Amino acid sequence: MAFVLTSQTEGEITQASSSAIKNEFSKLTSNFSVNKWVKNTNALRSDTIEVIKNNNFTNDDMADYIAASTITHLHDAWVFFGRAINALLNGDTVSARHMAYYSELRSAMSILATEGIAIFNTKHYYIDSSAQCHPLSQQKGTHEMLWAVIEYWSTLDKARTVLLNSIKPLGITLNSWLLSGGINALIHLSSDIYKCIGIDLKNLANDHNIRNRLSYRPSSIHVNTPLGTVENYNFVNEVWKKLEPGYKELDLAVLKQTIDVLTSSGNIEDKSLFVNQILQNTSFAEGRKSELLNYLLAPDMDTIISRAMNTNTSVDSAIADANNHFDVFSRTLLLLRIATGANHELMRSASIDLDNLNFWWHDIFEKKSFIAEVDQELEQCSMQDLWNDINDVAIENVSKTMSDSQINLYRAKEDLSYSSLLFGETERAMLWGLSS
User: Fold this and answer.
1) What is the pLDDT of residues 318-342, one digit of tens each?
2) Kindly report the CA angle at 203 between 94 and 315, in degrees rounded to 5?
């Protein structure tokens, strides 16, 4: 029987305060100055689950921990996505789906943390507008609780606000795009807007069931026909093009889908007139406006969004589906985008930028060797440099190599080993997403 939230738990989720988390996040600057997310004295810093089980922490400990978990959950989510890409390019779709699911999980945890909700093991907490932390009244395991909580949260006005402020096509929030055409999104967008743009929380919960089957049962018993090397590399190439700094292609795809949803629901009566109006309200050059007009009025749905919306009637059919890992990856990508946008907004509201977090992202540079000499080159390295490695090396090399229809995994490993490693360095996309 499916786990269902009580009305009491739903009320607690509604009471969770993103404003309180912003205040708590701004207080973390004293920790940042000594190169830490939380103080050594925070009881939750280590052996967290056991400390919670025994209730051996203070309110300040929990508030600090939830605030610090926002970006740290996000970081782990991007890392898991990179490992999923590595597995996929190595022909291991089972491990790829396993890692992609955990990226979804941690993305969702990060989003909820920015909203003042912390999912742990069986005891879970929220922070109210007075910065007081309370346990959620229901106790359930991590996975079931997480998907139930975020599914309910996604129906609230504040969830739509997160989406509207996180997605920024061409640097303009989704909310501003719609308002310029006379659409009040909180009124006209239905409560299932996340589902309409490809983030159906029921699909994400089903990804958990697929993960369970693939992770705990012998994978070789499942018989399917996996797609070839060309399809996998081309898909990852497409994913990275969507992640160009500013997430230009991905955010435009969400804008296009949102306009299509509003048109289908009758809230936009004349799609062509609406698109022309919102473009005329921008300062883009006429040639650029014409390109955007053609894109936004095109009948085709973006491939990432269409794949994210795919669902299977059963776990067995999903496992047997040779395209299923693309569907899971697409949902993961969209959830990562929302989580990154929510954290960027958190940082902006708390007047914190990446300069305040040097201790954290400098460590990422060093551990991942994004540049040859961290001490000497770091100050000269820009987020554009991080993208240039992907675009000028990985995307270009993969595009050329995959034009050969006879390519196989052996040759891809031989010719594209460095490009494959770069494609797995998804922390790059996180960093420029938080800095933009």
Assistant:
1) 565 667 889 999 999 999 999 999 9
2) 50
